[in-house]
Amino acid sequence: MTSSLPPVSDTIGDIQSLIRRPTRRVTSYDVASRAGVSQSAVSRCFKPGASVSKETYARVMKAAQELDYTPNAAARSLITRRSNLVGVVVNELAILHYPDILTELTRQFAERGVRVVLFSFPRENELDRTLAEVWQHPIDGAVVAARLSAVQAAEFDRRCVPFVLFNRHLRDQQANAIVCDQYEAARTMVSRLAGAGHKRFGLIDGPADSSIAQERRRGITDRLRELALPAPVVVAGEYDYASGGRGMRAIMDQSGTAPDAIICGNDVMAIGCIDSARHDFRLDIPGQLSITGFDGIASAGWLSYQLTTLRQPVQPMAVATADMLLGLIRSNTSYPERRVFSAVVVEGGTARLGPAV
Amino acid sequence: MTSSLPPVSDTIGDIQSLIRRPTRRVTSYDVASRAGVSQSAVSRCFKPGASVSKETYARVMKAAQELDYTPNAAARSLITRRSNLVGVVVNELAILHYPDILTELTRQFAERGVRVVLFSFPRENELDRTLAEVWQHPIDGAVVAARLSAVQAAEFDRRCVPFVLFNRHLRDQQANAIVCDQYEAARTMVSRLAGAGHKRFGLIDGPADSSIAQERRRGITDRLRELALPAPVVVAGEYDYASGGRGMRAIMDQSGTAPDAIICGNDVMAIGCIDSARHDFRLDIPGQLSITGFDGIASAGWLSYQLTTLRQPVQPMAVATADMLLGLIRSNTSYPERRVFSAVVVEGGTARLGPAV
């Protein structure tokens, strides 16, 4: 493998340089030759689950060790035609606020022999630029935790890159997705709060371009309407700590008085809301005001907050995502499926909850 | 490119399957042919900084668009012999506790046309298994935020994979590294606390296998000794919230009374320590007890805490890391260099600080 090798084909020429290696690499053929077995026997020894005799296995492993042979991803892909890399397309803010999701996804893929390439982007309107980069790397598939347009989704299909949406789905289109039912979760929280007698609600909403925020808001307003309770006072938020405090002050400005309960679009805003309610308005939480969040992040459990919230089952969702995407990559066929998980109420100490009404 | 193509050589055979593509890909030769220019002219058009006339550039771009040509990483590496992927080798806990470091590193590499492959591992003793995986992927280099043994570091060199240590260095060995001076930072905090009259210190230490924790502890004990102040009461911690509360209770158990100041090995433990001091011992912070952290994470700034801490300059450190690693990859030569950044004191509201003594 030298740079003066004439291009057998442009594709092979391109690809040969994907691996940077100063000296000739030891190949499975070298190992086969030393072990006195066929190359396919060597391949089978390094292929999980493949059948091979104990004796052959021992001979191959000995030869591999002597030659310092690494069964690398390229070698594996000789059998599987795969790079064993998957892309994760995600907003930077999502990594900052939900590092447990990325950690769990990475762990689940790693346990299945696959590594994650991070395609994070700073703003949703830069998604197109990020996708242009995705196509440039040899990934087997992608987890997309971003809102795809129909055109963008079609581009994945056209390029035969399987993808699984994480906590997103496509309106009026079929796509594989792992989601937590945000609408149901929001309705449940309203029901439990109404069950404890709360009547006047505030909502510190998530960003306008967040589909999760939209579903949560829709769940809240629908359920309040069904219960014949007043529509909530809605103020905008950006999913960050500062938004929670700003939201609390905006609701007080608009209403003149605190509502019975404020539902926040995520935990970090709920924490900001609690801090403002306590420090700016000297309100007793939950005595004078119930405050709830969404997500169940680690800091929601800290003694100063003990937030009442809805926890997304991150670990099972990550397992399902890895299994679904690797299944799509293996089978190359797609029967679009949406696996929907339910959030779990964390009772905490910042809201009075009753039985669901 | 079909699976029945005979292996021209094992290496080319291996590598051709790195890219999964059901139909023949449009190549730079196709673009060259349509634009009526040479293939090398097409290459130059997609190579940052390469010289090409305006007219040629326009013709190539038009042809590329018409043919839907993607100048992919493989094509770029035809020129550069690079995959434009770098590995980040990091403990899972570090992602959970310091997501801003991963986010900033990923952003800095992305701005330089390079994407990050995550090699996270759950425990330090699984680093060998993780490195075995690193060798299997076509990365150009790696950022290592883990403690490497001399043998592990030598393996990077032997395999010609350049690496930059992030907040780690190798004892008695030269290696490229970007670090924040933990020893200096710890000494500064002791000086500022001593300057406000604190005499009896407690330390909630980081994990035993953390080199950062060791340097912070060494800075604290050395500076206290120089100031002829008593050695600190040291209790073990695990860098998590629960450790902070446990540490606070352990210090009270050992001392019978609160020390003047407790320095915590990181911010999350300091937050746990504050919560325990307030809720379990009804202590006024900082009136009766000063508590400080390290790192300057987002939640340290929340109203309920407003932690006095030392902030690591994450953004400049990430810029330096990306520049250093890409420099090593480009030049292939290595004059080991350590770039050392200083932490900045965040005055906060949980400790009484004086002028440095």
Number of strands of chain A: 12
Give the count of helical stretches of chain A: 14
Using only C-alpha atoms, the radius of gyration of chain A works out to 26 Å
Structural class of chain A: alpha/beta
Which percent band covers the strand fraction of chain A?
A: 5-15%
| Helical content band of chain A | 40-55%
Q: Indicate the CATH architecture of the largest domain in chain A.
A: 3-Layer(aba) Sandwich
| Assigned CATH class of the largest domain in chain A | Alpha Beta
- Biggest interface pair, residues each? A-B, 78 and 77 residues
Largest sheet of chain A, described in full?
A: 6 strands, parallel
What overall form of chain A do the CA principal axes indicate? Answer: elongated
Strand order in the sheet with the most strands of chain A: 2-1-3-4-5-11
Distance separating the two termini of chain A: 71 Å
What's the mean pLDDT score of chain A? 87
The CATH topology assignment of the largest domain in chain A is Rossmann fold
Count of folded domains of chain A:
3
- Low-pLDDT parts of chain A are 1-23
Q: In sequence order, what are the helices and strands of chain A, one letter per element? A: HHHHHEHHEHEHEEHEHEHEHEEHEE
What do we call the CATH homologous superfamily of the largest domain in chain A? Response regulator
